[in-house]
Amino acid sequence: MTTAEAPTPLPGPGLAHPGVAQARQLLPPLLRDRVARLGSELGAICAYQLGLCDAQGEPAQGHGGKLIRPAFTLLCSAATGGSAAEVLPAAAAVELLHNASLIHDDIMDGDRSRRHRPTAWVRFGVPRALLAGDALIALGFEVLAEPRQPATAAAIADLAGTLRRLAIGQDGDLRFERETEREIAVDECLAMLGGKTGALLGCACRMGVRHAGAPPGWADAFDGFGRHLGVAFQIVDDVLGIWGDPSVTGKPVGSDVRARKKSAPVVAALRAGTPASAHLSRWYASAEPLTDDQVGTVTALIEEAGGRYWALAEADRRVAAAWDLLDGLPLDPAARRDLVDLTTTLTARRH
Amino acid sequence: MTTAEAPTPLPGPGLAHPGVAQARQLLPPLLRDRVARLGSELGAICAYQLGLCDAQGEPAQGHGGKLIRPAFTLLCSAATGGSAAEVLPAAAAVELLHNASLIHDDIMDGDRSRRHRPTAWVRFGVPRALLAGDALIALGFEVLAEPRQPATAAAIADLAGTLRRLAIGQDGDLRFERETEREIAVDECLAMLGGKTGALLGCACRMGVRHAGAPPGWADAFDGFGRHLGVAFQIVDDVLGIWGDPSVTGKPVGSDVRARKKSAPVVAALRAGTPASAHLSRWYASAEPLTDDQVGTVTALIEEAGGRYWALAEADRRVAAAWDLLDGLPLDPAARRDLVDLTTTLTARRH
Questions:
Q1: Nearest CA to CA, how far is B129 from chain A (Å)?
Q2: CA-CA 20 to 30 A from A53: which of A4, A19, A80, A181?
Q3: What is the Cα–Cα distance from A223 to B251, expressed in whole angstroms?
Q4: Chain B residues whose beta carbon lies within 8 Å of the beta carbon of residue A126
Q5: What are B92-118's pLDDT values in tens digits?
Q6: Is A7 within a domain?
């Protein structure tokens, strides 16, 4: 048992990993301290979004984010000879920006449920959830700017560029979902994933290599590493969004199919040129709400057209491409092993 | 006549002032360059919001913001011996943050019209307008972070703190509008204005004093100067929102009264303890839509209860308090005169 003052452990869905455990130990006290700067009213919304407390303001047990991005920042730092203390502000900044993006995306997409509970806009209303997202962005830049080191300005420009790319990527996604006439190519879909989810994990990884003593040029390798992994994790998430166990994903059964989301497995299935693809295409062209049985039919068609197989193979290709980029770099062996384990754990979430 | 490539003059409502003219000459090329980083789709929304183009993407003539905040940054810099080139990124950052705040506030408040044309969410939909706001925040931090000088980290922390305070202030405003049971005190209303609009003009002014050679300690004086002026300008805007000419304000007649906004003149009128106050209070307690005649009646009651008189006197008090803070500082006389003129022009917008 912990008291409210002690760092609260935030167990996630089956992620027992030393890198994640370190992020869960180091991040919450810093995040709590920053959120306190928002005052009790706006701070309560941000603490809820960050999983630091429940909707009643009580310390949360198990509703937090998985802290995967800061875990990558910490592990990439350790792998290249940095200390956790040096990169902790960057790890916090990435997690704050990630949550700002989630809170705003949930408003835009009308998603009502995340991490097994109502999304912030459902709980606090759209206007205040929107503001809480802005406040999280502010906290992200503030925590990164306060250690006034020579490299701070470059790190800030990097974080701002990442926020800009996230916005461009999400805007592409919004337009993508709206295009009912035109067939989306698989490459376009992957490029969109790269912009939307690759950008932030790329930032998380290269931020981990922005410490004193990091060899110059490594930031690019870790950026590419994170980008490939970000796309791989998103594809696995897309698979879980269709075939995942709701008790693991925290989303209602079949919600992605019901919303006719053009996630990566669906786009691949639609473009596979099989009879099932043509059948699936007719279901996606209609705007009629789907019954539970119809959700089952559509899910089976995506599988039959090869959507699941392609997606998991593409995730594997991305993971391999990520590791190719770090090939030959003299990384710390223990930290490298932790990175491999975390990557494997995250891409193995196939149920 | 200008070509599309040349800096487009953006004439505002009756603001012919050398400081504003300088901002209008220097800012648009930099803003255009930054907005281009967003690509054509998201960039078009941001260019529309910034008044750089119309809804069809054509260069705008006369729909731009008044660039008052960057004008203050440039004038405060000139008054303290800085150059426009040194503080231009800061002036741009303040204008970008201001527009991010406007685009998000318009979504939250459901406002449909700004600067004589539809607000961005009306034109482009809520999701994409929300993202455009995030993108403007990103551009603001990016433009400020790129000159990698020793003072950059401090300036970034300052901008992030301002964004945080803007969010807290706007959240206070949202809760304020929701409180139908409790009477709002005039002091609370002024504190809320200080958080919401004072914070950004304070930032604009102290950013102007963040140049090489600015005497230490002056930033605080200019911060207070900007905060007082921000409150004064907001009060004058509130007066215009009730009694202003729609052809000047760009808002429909009586829209603030129709929305029962608890702006400063209304709060003062409600708390004045006059018979008109009691009468006004009954109108504000009802949720029934107001007819045009009733809007006229309520407007007259606000005036009768002393709301307009109090507001304009408070604006004058704030302007005097602002100048008191700069009293005795050896400012550049020409720049000081320009600051006085601009302040007078802005607080004289009483029709």
A1: 10
A2: A19
A3: 47
A4: 107-108
A5: 999 999 999 999 999 998 988 887 889
A6: no
